[in-house]
């Protein structure tokens, strides 16, 4: 939302969120649309994306693993990251 200043933007955002919260509590049909179904399983969810090479490189450097400043990471580094973040 665009407003003239930050104070107005915060005020309108809080009003919008308060109205949305009130609607969610008072609208009879709202809960089935905004709450996950009881029989849904998280197994259908996609796997978390792999981290970027820069993130793994920073992690490896923090843990004392030898990595170059640029280029591809060795498979051992990726495997060490996966083992540490299961």
TrEMBL record:
Lsr2 DNA-binding domain mapped to chain residues: 51-84
Keyword field: DNA-binding
Record carries keyword DNA-binding: yes
Pfam families in the record: Lsr2_DNA-bd
Record-given protein name: Histone-like nucleoid-structuring protein Lsr2
